[in-house]
Structure formats: C-alpha cells, structure tokens
Amino acid sequence: MDTTSKELIRQGGDSGKKRRLINSPLVEWAMRYNFILIFLLAVAVATSLSSDFLTFGNIANLFQQAAVVGIVAIGMTFVILTANIDLSVGSLSAFAGIVVALLLQGGMSGWLAAPLALGAGLVAGAAMGAISVYGKVPSFIITLAGLVSFRGATFLLSDGSPIGGLPGGFSSIGSAMVPIVPGSDLLFPVMGIIFLVIAIIAGLVLRYTVFGEYVLATGGNIEAARLSGVPVRAVSIAVFAISGLLAALGGVLLTSRLHIGQPTSAQGLELDAIAAVVLGGTSLFGGRGGMLGTTFAVMLLQVLRNIFNLVGLGSFYQMTITGVIIVLAILLNRLIDHYAGRT
C-alpha cells in the first residue's frame, strides 16, 4: 500500500472519529446550548468575586435592569430569524415613551395612553416592514432611516426637554415589586415578570405555531418558502410589527421606571438587542435560533456588566470588552455550524 493510500485511510478514520464525536448526545447538547454554558461560567466568576451576587435581591435587580433590553431583544429575534434587521428599536422606544408621557400629562388615563403608544409602535414597525417588502428596500436601510426619523420626531414632540408630572400610578409600574408567593418577603420586579412572560409566549409561538414555522422557513430560504405556499411578505411585515410593538412596550416601561419622558432615552438600545440575539445563537442569516438563547444572552450581558462593575472596570473598557465578546461569540457559533455540517 502506497503512502497516499495510507494518508487517505488515516484522514477517513479521523473524519469518522469527528462524526462520532459530533454525534455524541453530550457534545451535541453542549454545541447547541453553548450560551447556557457561557452564562453559567459568567455566574461562577461573578459569584467568586462577590458573595452577594447570588442573593435573591441581586438576582431580582438583574432582571429589573435587563427587562427593557430583553423585551426589545425578543422582538429583534423574530426579525433576525427572517434574515432582516431592525435598527430603529431604540428611537422607537424613546418615541413611544414620549407619546405616553404627553398623553398622560394631558390628562388621559394610563389605561388608554399606554395602548395608544403601543399601537403607534406596532403601526410604525409594520410600515417599515411594508416599505422594505413592497419597495424592495433592504431592512438595514429602511430601519436606519427609522432610527433617525423617530428620534427626530421624539425631539420635536418633546421640544427636546424631559416631560414630567406623570401620574403616580403609572410611574409606580416601573419600580413595582411583588412577592414571588403571597405573604413572602422575597420581592420580584414587575418589569422582570413582564420580560419573562413575553419570552415564554414568544418561545411557544416560535416553536409550536404555524406562524413560528413560517418565520423560520422565511429566514431559512425565502424563495423555497414562497414556492411552498408560505406568505413570506405577510410574515416579514408581521415580524417588524412585533418588533415595533415590543420596542414601544420597552419605551413605555422605561418611562414608567424613570418617572419621566426622556427624549434621549434608549440610545444604543438597538445595539444591545442585536448583541443579545447574536450571543444567543440566532443566525444573522436567518432561519436558525430561538427565544431561549436570546433570554439567556440578555441575562449574560447583564451579568457581565455586573462583573465589570465589581472589578471597577471603566465604561469605555466595558464597551470594548463587550464588543470583543460579541465577535468571539459569532466566531464560536460559526465554528459550531462548520463542525455540525451546517456550513
């Protein structure tokens, strides 16, 4: 047997070993849910740095701080799963926050003002989706225009100044705490509960409904989905409407938490949302990902910020390191796709 034949046999043996390794249930689970392992590692590091990290009060505080980003990131997940992107969510959140503040300041009931602000976000998202779909404009471009336009509209409505004097009942929602069980002294933030409930509903919709199948099919191969009877245009518009609705909800909750309508709020929120979606394993090319990954990634980013604060790292360093972590996460997921045979 010549040297070339021996080399080919050796490579074939190595390939077989690789396939057996990839087909191992434990390795397959670790590759699929690597974001959970990274999250647990970050929690272990934070716990070693501070004995107070795993206290219930600190965990509740983490959910309070992560709620707005988490809610917006869930909407962003739907959009990215269709191989699109929404850069307008930060500006749209601020816009909805100013709208609800103006309506409340004018004497409108919160039960009416909040739904109107949410409706504005839903309509704005659907409009951007429709322009992108029917005008054949890349979602990056149309939502970039939305980022600028909605921020400008926010400053016009507020005249560039914060809007205060909001009713106490509305302002209390953002800081409200409820016992995890009746009579318990362990209090959990209402905003955190809203985030978790929306994450669960979104996960169930994506996994167990026809609409969820349509979203994944549209992002996986839009032409094949269209030929299979999937209403790809309606699906694309719907995910932008969902993103707009949840961005507006995040803005309303943020206004309640701050007790003021702030036109400069939610700046950079779109970047945090996209970072969470990518860290959670959702492919920027669409068709693969889920809400579980996004939820864990949102909390991972919050834990990392907690760690940075514990070690006294400056904000500029925090931004730099967070960016590096996001790039590494993308490379890790691409490597996993390669070994899993998806690329």
Structural account:
The structure is a single chain. The protein contains 15 helices and two strands. It is mainly α and 343 residues long. The protein has a two-stranded antiparallel sheet. The longest helix is centred in the C-terminal third of the chain and has 27 residues, at 232-258.
List keywords for this structure.
two-stranded antiparallel sheet; 15 helices; 343 residues; mainly alpha
Proportion of residues in β-strands: under 5%
Measured as a percent range, the helix fraction is over 70%
Q: What does the overall shape look like?
A: globular
- Main sheet characteristics: 2 strands, antiparallel
Distance between the termini: 34 Å
* Major sheet: arrangement of strands: 1-2
Oligomer: single chain
Low-confidence stretches: 4-19
- Summarize the helix and strand pattern as letters: HHHHHHHHEEHHHHHHH
Total number of beta strands: 2
Number of helices: 15
Mean pLDDT rating: 87
Specify the structural class.
mainly alpha
Give the radius of gyration.
Answer: 22 Å
Show the helix and strand layout.
Layout: H1 3-22, H2 25-32, H3 34-49, H4 56-81, H5 89-105, H6 110-134, H7 139-158, H8 168-171, E1 177-179, E2 187-189, H9 190-208, H10 210-220, H11 222-227, H12 232-258, H13 269-279, H14 291-310, H15 315-339
Antiparallel strand pairs: 1-2
Summarize the structure.
This protein has 343 residues and is an all-alpha fold. The protein has 15 helices and two strands. It has helices at residues 3-22, 25-32, 34-49, 56-81, 89-105, 110-134, 139-158, 168-171, 190-208, 210-220, 222-227, 232-258, 269-279, 291-310, 315-339; strands at 177-179, 187-189.
